[in-house]
Amino acid sequence: MKPFSAFLIGASLLVSATAASSQTTTAGSQSSTPSTGDVSAGTYGSGNTDPNSVGVSGGGNATAADGGTATTDSRAKFNDNMARQRSVATARDEDERARSMTNTHVRNDGQVRSRSMSIYKEKGEKPIIDRQTTRSGEK
Predict the structure, then answer these.
(1) Higher pLDDT, 37 or 3
(2) Handedness of CA 118, 122, 123, 124 (dihedral sign)
């Protein structure tokens, strides 16, 4: 059976806003599960802000072989003061599970934070967890 593969590139948003800083601030993160088994999942996200705008982008991918299932979801919200992005990718089969999540928050005052986490679990084994966090412009 052919492996099922899903790939999603998240929306990219750019919103006009007034920022307290006169420089561009950027942060991003990504995380993925090991690709040695029949399932894998990965997500990524990034955000930036400058004196006139805030923006986020992100997405993810998931694969599952041997009759497994894989799903991805990426969403973004924004207004004049902030932008948020969330991506989730999951894959599973009879004895393996993979999940990856990324959240990115951007504020017009120059603060950008991106957090990613992935978990891979094989039946009877301990989970493998990967966490990444990036922050810029914290006061």
Answers:
(1) 37
(2) negative
